[in-house]
Design goal:
five-stranded mixed sheet, rod-shaped, alpha+beta
Length: 453
């Protein structure tokens, strides 16, 4: 267990590396002095350790080497060269200051520490090169100018210490690099998870927003028209007003049911009563068309592909496209307009697609184009909602649905009057998923009324 006072001291030393290097230099100096004044045997041959004197140049050069080690972290190569030169000078001067039996090579300890620092601060090639040079220089020097005879174990130990310093420095540096790489990968993985979570939240919010828009816009438009009819004929034809009120009640009940289903997406997945997808699809296309017919709009349907089984995502998207297109016709062209819905399959087995086309004969101002609407709208939509001053969320939702399924979406006025919405949805899953998030919708919106895959 770490003592409470040790942690602040360790943090202070990490914040002041020069002070830490000075302490390391003092420790190496003390160790070198202890080794230098101690002999492994008594001069008279007795048991135990003996003592030997130290010359003045030994003390001075030891102090110079220790001072150089203080800067080892900042200038590792220069410190190695300096300490090496000091060690060679001490070995040379020792041949004249000590007898053959009193010579020692303890100053090589400073060289070992400096070489370890070089291995820790540089790369493998530099460590190998400088390690070989240091070993090749100091091993023969210790044999010639160190303890005699030349094969004394102290002289041969210089080779082992210099080689060990290079190996240990390389091992510590490699381990630090590996730990840093693992930490970086963990941080990058954490950032990736956070970005993925934000992306999924944004996609879910956009999906739910599209569902809410489609449900509310469709049913509220029908309620608005029927309410206007009831208000107009209340005093003169109360039976027709009561019928309109019945349609309002029916449309509002369906709107509440679909809103409850859509809001259920926000519930927890483990709750069994929470559906994971809206239940609407082309199977209830007749109910959708009947609602518009009750509002007074003529709608013809040619949908041979609606009876065949479809992927759930394509089925829901096709239903929402038809719903939004008919709502726009009713809201912008008026109930007197006529709409035609056509849903067919196209392509072969490998490239099968579901084509949805909704045409109307409502008025369209001359000279108005989809591209112009896209530029001046401000929300990225053009065409129908541009000419009538709509918000543009419906057409944006169509494009987003088509883009999410790797399909295409085309909206714009028809030649000779009227407006057309055409969407093509692939029936096969794409090999590469479309780009997620809001960018596909923005890219689709920038295309205006053109093809926006």
């Amino acid at each position: 267990m770490t003592h409470p006072q040790v942690v602040p001291a360790r943090q202070w030393l990490r914040a002041h590396p020069l002070a830490l290097d000075a302490l390391v230099s003092l420790a190496v100096l003390g160790f070198a002095l202890c080794v230098s004044v101690t002999e492994s045997r008594q001069p008279d041959g007795g048991s135990g350790f003996g003592e030997r004197h130290l010359a003045g140049h030994t003390l001075a050069l030891y102090g110079l080497a220790a001072a150089a080690l203080t800067l080892r972290r900042r200038f590792p190569r220069k410190v190695l060269v300096t300490v090496g030169a000091v060690a060679m000078l001490e070995l040379f001067l020792g041949t004249g200051s000590y007898t053959a039996a009193e010579r020692h090579s303890s100053i090589v300890i400073f060289v070992v520490v400096a070489l370890f620092t070089v291995a820790l601060a540089t790369d493998r090639a530099t460590t190998l090169r400088l390690g070989l040079i240091t070993t090749a220089v100091f091993t023969p020097a210790a044999m010639l100018m160190g303890v005699q005879p030349w094969y004394d174990p102290e002289n041969l130990g210089v080779f082992a210490w210099t080689a060990l310093a290079s190996a240990m420095g390389e091992a510590v540096r490699t381990r630090r690099a590996m730990v840093d790489a693992i930490r970086e990968r963990a941080e990058r993985a954490e950032r990736t998870r956070e970005e993925e979570a934000r992306r999924r939240v944004a996609e879910e919010r956009m999906r739910i927003a599209r569902e809410l828009h489609d449900v509310v816009a469709h049913h509220i438009a029908l309620v608005n028209v029927q309410a206007g009819v009831a208000s107009h004929v209340m005093s003169t034809r109360p039976d027709q007003a009561m019928e309109a009120l019945g349609h309002i009640r029916h449309a509002s009940r369906r709107a509440l049911a679909e809103l409850q289903t859509t809001v259920g997406l926000l519930r927890h997945q483990d709750e069994p009563i929470a559906p994971t997808e809206p239940v609407r699809g082309l199977g209830v296309l007749d109910e959708l068309v009947e609602g518009f017919a009750q509002a007074g709009m003529a709608v013809t349907v040619d949908a041979p592909a609606a009876a065949a089984p479809l992927p759930s995502a394509v089925d829901l998207a096709a239903y929402r496209v038809v719903q939004e297109a008919l709502t726009n016709v009713h809201k912008h062209a008026g109930p007197e307009a006529t709409a035609r819905v056509r849903i067919v399959r196209s392509g072969g087995a490998a490239d099968a697609a579901l084509d949805i086309t909704v045409d109307d004969d409502g008025p369209c101002p001359a000279g108005e184009t989809v591209g112009a609407g896209a530029e001046g709208d401000g929300d990225g939509d053009g065409g129908e909602e541009r000419r009538h001053g709509g918000s543009g969320h419906g057409l944006t939702g169509m494009r987003e649905r088509a883009t999410a399924l790797s399909g295409t979406c085309e909206v714009g006025p028809k030649d000779g009057g009227g407006f057309r919405v055409r969407v093509s949805l692939p029936l096969q899953s794409p090999t590469r998923p479309p780009e997620p998030g809001v960018e596909p919708a923005r890219r689709a919106a920038r295309h205006g009324g053109g093809w926006c895959a």
